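Worked example (supplementary).
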Amino acid sequence: MQLSKGSRVALRATTYLTLGVLYTPLVLVFVLSFNSERSLAWPPAGFSTRWWSTFLDVESAREALLSSARIALIAMTIAVVLGTLLSFALHSFTFFGKNVVSFLAVLPIALPGIVTGVALRNTFVRFGVDLGLLSVVVGHATFCIVVAHNNVIARLRRIAPNLREASADLGASEWQTLRYVTWPLIRSAVIAGGILAFALSFDEVVVTTFTAGAGIQTLPQWILNNFSRPNVLPYVTVVATIVLVISLPLAWLAQRLSDSHLDD
Amino acid sequence: MGERLEQTARLAQPRNSRAGREKSRSALALAAVLSGPLAWLLVVYVGSLSLLIVSAFFSLDDFTGKPTNELTTSNVVEAFTQSEYVSLVLRSIGVAACATVICLALALPTAFYISRLASRRTKRGLVVAMLLPLWTGYLVKAFALRAVFEPGSEYGDGGLLKGLLGWSPGFGYFAVILTLAYLWFPYMLLPIHAGFERLPDSLIDASSDLGAGTLRTFVSVIARSSFHRSLPAASSPSRSPSATTSP
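After joint prediction of all chains, the assembly is encoded as:
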């Protein structure tokens, strides 16, 4: 297309400006976590590492971090196992109601989190299930299944069928084909799905709010409960920075893993 | 003739029974891989949703607020007629619509630059850079924008905007809309970018050969042919991580 130089420059400027706007608040939180004052004011009053050196003493933050990690790990494990199984079922078999099942898997993420949250809470309360770690894990695993499933089935579809046929022609049993041909090809997609499921669970707010009882607090809930309390505010910036520093490289890694092509 | 038939039958027989065995074995394998995830989705999710819908039609005890066994449609009628619920819904829709318009206004030029003008190398980098913030904490981002919009109070002298520009919109609808636009922008960008990527160059060339200017080409060719791709982005208020998992 013949674009004038001016409009090219304008488009380029909009793009990099948008990118700048996307990252400015993230950098801001990082900078503010080294603020010497208990404030979000700009410019920061001075440089200090005291919030970083003392945040582990804040018991509620430490516990929230631990329960978030625990919940995310368990939910991720359930989601990866169920999501991978589901991918095999939908990819390698034809059966009645296949489309319905495929739709069902996407539903928990397609519907707003609040629907999932309210529905699960309603069920737990009716059947007398205690609201705690277990109920949160069940909620998280439900919407994480689709993340693992999406990654694995995308990879399964990209595997050339003649690889499996070749394996069978060379006398491999179905199990050996799965173990030595299919599994190495999908492994990175399973790991990527796991990382994304972990990140999704670690970050979840709405479903957690509805399925967590009084006794349990995840990291996002800790942030939610403390951001307006001036005394704890500096620790919120520290925790927020930790989440950023951990999640950005993980997201990048997951992206790389799920992109790694079979043909190059 | 009869002998040949018999021979064929003999040849066919073992093959048939093997096929039968394979069929039942594959049914078994299907059950093995499907039963777990299906049971989870049906029992936990579909079960809860159904129960939720059913619950909407049972009245609550006025005193304890607990559900009773009395069937009623008054809950549903109330939700659609009481002004507080209706205005709540309208307000949500209004805020979401504003955020969507902002996302669209930024995503169109940005996606166009990334997919059509940027070099191959920069393109890859830009897409990843635009999508990465999706995977950092939702609340972390919201908190970060709080530090941007902080209007100044007894606890501080105002956030980034106030500090740099001397002005901040403060907390309220304006900040909420901008924050939501910030949070959902990558979801808008990705499908539009994918739409632009699939658009053949020849269409754009044809448009300018036929004498259309840049704006005309953009509106009549590019936007129109990619419009349906931006719809899912505009209509998905909930997170859809599939956006970053499908290349």
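Two points are worth noting when inspecting this output. Chain A has eleven helices and no strands. Chain A touches chain B through 97 residues (CB under 8 Å).
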